[in-house]
From TrEMBL:
Pfam families: MFS_3. SUPFAM superfamilies: MFS general substrate transporter. The chain crosses the membrane at residues 20-40, 52-72, 145-164, 198-223, 229-248, 260-277, 283-305, 317-339, 345-365. This is Predicted arabinose efflux permease, MFS family. It is found in: Cell membrane. It is a multi-pass membrane protein. Keywords: Cell membrane, Membrane, Transmembrane, Transmembrane helix, Transport. The keyword Ligase does not apply. GO terms for cellular component: plasma membrane. It comes from the Bacteria. Its main location: membrane. InterPro entries: MFS_trans_sf, TM_effector. PANTHER family: INTEGRAL MEMBRANE EFFLUX PROTEIN-RELATED, STAPHYLOFERRIN A TRANSPORTER.
């Protein structure tokens, strides 16, 4: 609910200015780009359980900071929203790697993909209820109450974390990184060679192609001429697709080197389909496809990284992933916002998607012609993998 209300509020306060919306979106992800290296290294040596408890209370506090001025004074400004978005970004730079490593602490590497898929399904369910509820609540009682309700919702996560600790014992979520300390953080020179192509596609997808927090409300309001309820329902469609992707991912085995190329290609195709939408039904259907492809891609890459990285490499490798996926959203948001402002919203969706498809094609060719550490992966990394993976998913 929070993100739906946040971006809708910015869109309202800024009167539909795409550049302002993109700058506020960018501010939130600056900490991921700047701080991912030291934070990724530190989280690997900390108790993930304790870290997650702290981040839940911090996110609750940020939601309250957004709610109070609206509810008490009826006031909101772009600079205040941007400042709270920056605080939220600082929390997320700690929360993301801690959450990813905590999942492995709970289930082990053998069941990690199924666990990530199940977790993504639960998150997708929340993203169905959240945006739809936010759309109706914004129309009925305003953004302030949405932020306040979101703050209360973090208590459920806190109770769940405490329950896990009681059931599984004090060892769950403790620091597990062993071996030589890594100082690499998000630097590519400190992560396994096999992970680097995945990080490149992650950067293009997360930083540029998936900027629907900017293009989504603009598409709904300025192109399709709909309201906040429709915007919430579009978010629900995206979440439904993400759930389908999570279920498919949970049924699959350990990811191969070329599988993430398949899902990045599918994402680019569905995003282009969304850019061509002429009505809300079309746009919602396309966003469902985008959500499915995004879920399959991110789950595949996260599990692939944890399969390939040693314990001492996991903190830096996951920090590199988070920096690629979220850290480049600030420059990407500015670029996409400028494209949307001066060329049109459709081009703001289409041009980054084309760039992603070109990069995916290049990666597929490289994986087909470059030997891998395991011969069977070399075969599956070819361009034939696209048809095979889609067939298995269906």
């Amino acid at each position: 609910m929070e993100y739906t209300a946040l971006y809708w509020l910015v869109n309202r306060v800024a009167e539909g200015n795409a550049l302002v919306l993109s700058l506020v979106a960018a501010v939130q992800f600056v900490p991921m780009l700047v701080l991912s290296r030291p934070v990724g290294r530190a989280v690997g040596r900390m108790s993930r359980h304790r870290t997650l408890l702290i981040t839940q209370f911090a996110q609750m506090a940020v939601s309250v900071l957004l709610a109070v001025p609206l509810l008490i004074f009826g006031w909101a400004s772009v600079w205040w929203i941007g400042a709270t978005a920056l605080l939220l970004g600082c929390v997320h730079v700690v929360d993301s790697p801690a959450r990813q490593m905590f999942m492995k602490d709970l289930v082990g590497i053998e069941r990690l993909r199924r666990a990530v898929g199940t977790y993504s399904t639960a998150v997708g369910g929340a993203r169905i209820v959240g945006p739809a509820a936010a759309g109706f609540l914004i129309a009925g009682i305003g953004e302030g109450w949405v932020f306040l309700l979101n703050a209360v919702s973090y208590l459920a996560v806190v109770f769940s974390l405490n329950y896990v600790r009681r059931v599984r014992g004090d060892s769950i979520g403790g620091a597990t990184v062993t071996g030589q300390r890594s100082s690499g953080g998000a630097r590519l020179t400190r992560i396994p060679q096999a992970i680097r192509p995945a990080l490149l596609l992650t950067l293009l997808l997360g930083g540029f192609a998936y900027q629907f927090q900017i293009t989504g409300p603009l598409m709904v309001v300025t192109v399709l001429h709909d309201d906040s309820v429709t915007y919430g329902l579009i978010g629900m469609c995206t979440a439904v697709g993400a759930i389908v992707g999570s279920v498919v991912s949970a049924r699959r085995s350990a990811p191969t080197t070329g599988e993430y190329v398949t899902w990045s290609t599918a994402f680019g195709v569905m995003a282009l389909f969304a850019a061509m939408a002429t009505n809300s039904v079309w746009f919602g259907a396309a966003m469902a496809g985008v959500g499915m492809a995004l879920s399959l891609f991110t789950t595949t890459v996260v599990v692939f990284i944890q399969h390939r990285a040693t314990d001492s490499e996991q903190g830096p490798a996951l920090a590199a992933y988070n920096a690629a996926y979220m850290g480049f959203i600030p420059p990407g948001a500015v670029v996409v916002g400028a494209i949307a402002e001066y060329l049109g919203v459709r081009w703001g969706i289409a041009l980054p998607s084309v760039a992603l498809l070109v990069a995916a094609g290049y990666a597929a060719i490289k994986l087909r012609t470059t030997p891998t550490t395991r011969p069977e992966e070399d075969a599956e990394a070819s361009t034939d993998l696209l048809a095979r993976n889609v067939h298995e998913a269906l």
